[in-house]
Amino acid sequence: MSKQNINRLKSVKPLRGMVLEIRYTGGQLVRVDCSELADRFAVFSALKDRAFFKQVVVSDWGHTLEWPNGEGLDADRLMEMALEQQGRTDALEFRRWQDRNGLSLTDAAEAIGLTRRTVSQYRTGARPVPRTVMLACKGWELGR
Question: What pTM was estimated for this model as a whole?
Answer without folding.
Answer: 0.80
